[in-house]
């Protein structure tokens, strides 16, 4: 038997960039940050999964095919398989009308579950103020930094519906406005947009909440420049290799009016400790078997990040620290994910700059282990990091004062903090290495923080160098960033 085609249908499909391979009764699904193996599967279940990679199909059509081939007893196992694929972020949804595609939902994060809320006549819908529409290839894409999924618009009447949702509307309002969308189809589309996280319900956001204090571009910049909320390529992908030559390492003079500056005489006396530290500064990824000590970590944090006092102003308290910070706001917090440190147990700690102490947040949980493992991968598996210092920003500390530039200022402060850490670590003969990126969602879960209130914006690996202390002898193994 087969389910009859409906006028309006919600159909499933596998994400288009995924690849399916079948072997020994199993199926392997691979793609960017997706590597899934399921099975063993019956021939009918395997064929149903194969169908999802070739053309969209409704759940009832897929289930009917399995029941026809293997009987009703096979249905619960197949529905569990669909649930497993869904939880792994494999499945998207497509709304069709008379077999014509209108809009499709594509999951962006693992663990996302599409849970449609039936559209009710009295319920008010409005597009999220963080939603944006853009072109991707030949498609119009609707997405948001708050949304775990994006929606691809396939038909012009859906674009008109999105436009109408710039104002609060009920389904009855939208139906009366026309636009060429039938009532049943309208309900399906509202369920799709709402289920993707692209809608807001009720009135304007409360400015006292974290979402209410984010500006659109800041949150978009944050979510798109960190791992966790996208499946796009990330990191050193060399995406233009073979297309165009890389830019030259040193920029040519823009004019011929060149004035040379004096150079330091190599025979002159040393310029002083700072010049020596700057000369020796390197990114050191290779750690010694002997771990960092509690005393060394304490000295490092005291010299690099302690609070030197506070001062009251008409606009709130400001602090003084060893490194400069935008507006003296010092929104950056330091968390230590400890893998090996003599005198300190493994786990995640919060650094208290005023008290100059650590408070333990948790032990070596799976989340903490993943943070350290990601850092290990970032330094090319040279050495497992002894201590990973995560720089987190209290975003509203900056956005309260600054408009339009809050997140950009945070990133400037991260750079200043990292340079301070490099210099202190080098002067102490430790092994420092800043990382180029990290997973903000993973850190928020590990530390129990709200992604929108305080999130990771930088990572810094610290340990003892493998060989002589940094800069002391030639046996130090370093790798330039």
Short account of what is shown:
This protein is of the alpha+beta class and 481 residues long.
Protein model, in words:
It is a single chain. The protein is of the alpha+beta class and 481 residues long. 30% of the residues lie in helices and 23% in strands. The protein contains 14 helices and 21 strands. The chain has helices spanning 43-52, 59-70, 75-87, 156-164, 171-176, 183-195, 210-213, 216-224, 273-280, 294-305, 366-378, 395-399, 406-428, 440-447; strands spanning 8-14, 19-23, 26-31, 34-38, 91-97, 100-107, 126-127, 132-136, 139-143, 149-153, 199-200, 292-293, 310-313, 316-319, 332-338, 341-342, 347-352, 357-362, 387-394, 431-434, 454-463. The strands form 6 sheets. Strands 1-5-6-10-9-8 form a 6-stranded antiparallel β-sheet. α10 crosses α13 (406-428). The longest helix has 23 residues, at 406-428. The protein is globular. It starts with 7 loop residues before the first strand and ends in an 18-residue tail after the last strand. Residues 1-6, 268-272 and 471-481 have low confidence and may be disordered.
